[in-house]
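Z., the sequence and structure:
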Amino acid sequence: MTAKWTPGPWVKDRRGDLRGSDGKQVGTWDAGIAWVSRDDEAEANARLMAAAPELLEALKACLEWMEETRACGDCGFWDWTPGDTYMRGIQTVAQAEGSAP
């Protein structure tokens, strides 16, 4: 069975450690190199980090599809509201690309 990764969101603390929402250290950032420890959860974290670029591109494609679907009216028209799936996706992309406040 595949180990589950550390729950997010992950944040980088002042020392450069990457921590999960449970406060557990996921890895560290030192001299531009990220590393993780070697246990089952850490291996799952490393797989998630390795998949991050593809996940970001997939999210962007989903958001684009949502925008096109909304604009064409085939599913009715609706407005995005704070906290909905679309807005969470936009915020996640901004965070990943370093443009989130």
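The chain has one domain: 11-96. The two ends are 38 Å apart (CA to CA).

Let me know what you think.
H.
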